[in-house]
Amino acid sequence: MAGPYSAKVMDHFMNPRNVGEIEDASGVGEVGNPACGDMMRLYLKIEDGRVVDAKFRTFGCGAAIASSSMLTEMIKGKTVAEAREITNRHVADALDGLPPVKIHCSVMAEEAVKSALDDYEKKNPA
Amino acid sequence: MAPVFFDHISTTPLDPRVFAAMTPYFTEWYGNPSSHIHDQGQAAQKAIETARGEVAALIGATPAEIVFTSGATESNNLAIKGVAAANAGKGKHLVVSEIEHFSVLNALIPLRNAGYEVTMLKVDGDGRVDPDDVRAAIRPDTVLVSVMHANAEIGTIEPVSAIGRIARERGVLFHTDAAASAGHIPLDVREAGADLVTLSAHNVYGPKGTGALFVREGVKLAPMLDGGFQEMGFRAGTENVPGIVGMGAAAGIAALEMDRWAALLRPLGKRLRDGIAASVAHVHFTGHPVDRLPGHVSFWVEFAEGESLLLFLNVHGVMAASGSACSSNLKGRDEEDLVASHVLRAVGVPSDICTGSITFSLGKGNTEADVDAVLGVLPGIVKRLWEMSPTYLDYQKRIAQGG
């Protein structure tokens, strides 16, 4: 389908991976604000310093939902240190790009990771 | 399911009768109306004068008061800037509603930069301008009042006759942008007390790239383009003959069939609105409940974002519009271009909620089956987005806790 988004964005928007909550999450991150048009909540399950599960709930446009979905795919299996290295660029590239006005949606995904990992580290001081 | 086009406020399909009227003016009668010494030029000139009469008849004007343009954006620019430039001797103050189209609002920017002052008129929760506010805003140096006939996004019809009367009493020119309404609901320029009226062809089953500005006889207006003496000197440049012929044909058809279209569209709009109200929770309809464009249904849904709604609707073959920030300017340069709709903000919808707005605008080709098809998919789409939304989850938790 032609349109503003890549086929990959549309796939992740139409069939988002890992929607939901993790009841006993190791870390929860929340970024964005519905007043700005998008908001993402990211739940991470971390065992032995590695992300073993990730789920999300997002209020937002197609790019916000697709970025959230792609992020949860990318982060699973990564160590906490590796997860911290994920940037918005990685998320956008994995989606075969986003329109320039939608780059902030991938930034939201990056910030959600930082927020969830900060929460995890606060609960699990080294 | 077959595609359903519910975005007639953005544009309408060309009526096949309009297309048939235009066709000879591409290859057979290609003359320049200014070349009226020969047969080709005369044929073109005759064609645009016929079209001028048809457009004039639609709004109760005389043919000499119709200036053809490239569309409503040019007409609005010509009205605003042309009146300001030609009447600067009287003053440099304009009165404009805050829910005008961008081609009115943004035309004010260079005027402000040139020292003009603008009073913005607020609207009520239904999107209506209070004529008393117009009366209060007019000053001795006011040169123009501009309030649209109907708003495309929320469908509200403005009290233009009352506003026109006030402007006339105070000796101020009155412009109304009727791009969304002309040919859909009756408009008589004399009854409305209008001095300038913006018209669009493609919003009423005519071609894109053609519009008109009604300029009441005697109104002082400066042209925007320097060039030849086409269009009574108000609009230089060789006329878009096929487009103008198409606009004339579309106006002629609208004059005859407008009432029939409205009689079809009002019940379809009601069926759609009632169906949405019955099947989707947390829905809030926007615009005036009664005084609105036929077949126009606009609303917002809590906990669901507008662009996501539109994307899912499109996947199901339903084409609609949104005032959502995220869908407002997908081709913009950066997120600074993402601004929640000024119209929805003006009617008091909170900006977090503006993002969930949808405008369904029906046209003469739509049927009950189209309405029912949309009603068949919309609740499921909303539910799906809610299930992804953290704000809906929080809401459910609050409800579960009895909050």
Describe the structure.
The complex is a heterodimer of chains A (126) and B (403). Chain A is of the alpha+beta class and 126 residues long. Chain A has a single domain (7-123), classed as Sufe protein. Chain: A (Alpha-Beta Complex), CATH 3.90.1010. Chain A is 44% helix and 21% strand. A 3-stranded antiparallel β-sheet of chain A has the order 1-2-3. In chain A, α4 (88-94) packs across α5 (103-123). Chain A is globular and about 45 Å long. Chain A starts with 6 loop residues before the first helix and ends with a helix. With 403 residues, chain B is of the alpha/beta class. Chain B has 2 domains: 4-9 and 259-400, Aspartate Aminotransferase, domain 1; 16-254, 3-Layer(aba) Sandwich (Aspartate Aminotransferase, domain 2). Chain B has 15 helices and 12 strands. Chain B has helices at 16-22, 24-27, 39-59, 72-86, 102-105, 108-113, 131-137, 160-169, 241-279, 306-315, 325-328, 342-346, 351-354, 368-388, 390-400; strands spanning 4-5, 66-69, 93-97, 117-121, 142-146, 173-177, 196-200, 211-215, 283-285, 296-301, 318-319, 357-361. Chain B has a 7-stranded mixed β-sheet with strand order 2-8-7-6-5-3-4, with helices on both faces. In chain B, α1 (16-22) runs antiparallel to α9 (241-279) and α3 (39-59) packs parallel to α9 (241-279). The chains are: A alpha+beta (126), B alpha/beta (403). At the A-B interface, α1, β2, β3 and α2 of A face α10, α11 and α15 of B.
Under the CATH scheme, which architecture of the largest domain in chain B would be assigned? 3-Layer(aba) Sandwich
Q: List the helices and strands of chain A in order.
A: HEEEHHHH
CATH domain fold name of chain A: Sufe protein. Chain: A
Poorly predicted regions of chain B are 327-331, 333-337
Q: Which value, in Å, is the CA radius of gyration of chain A?
A: 14 Å
By CATH, the architecture of chain A is named: Alpha-Beta Complex
Question: Largest interface, counted with CB-CB under 8 A?
Answer: A-B, 33 and 35 residues
Number of strands of chain A: 3
Overall pLDDT of chain B = 94
Q: Total number of β-strand segments of chain B?
A: 12
- Under CATH at level 1, the class of chain A stands as Alpha Beta
Structural class of chain A: alpha+beta
Distance between the termini of chain A: 48 Å
User: What's the CATH C level of the largest domain in chain B?
Assistant: Alpha Beta
Major beta sheet of chain A, specifics?
3 strands, antiparallel
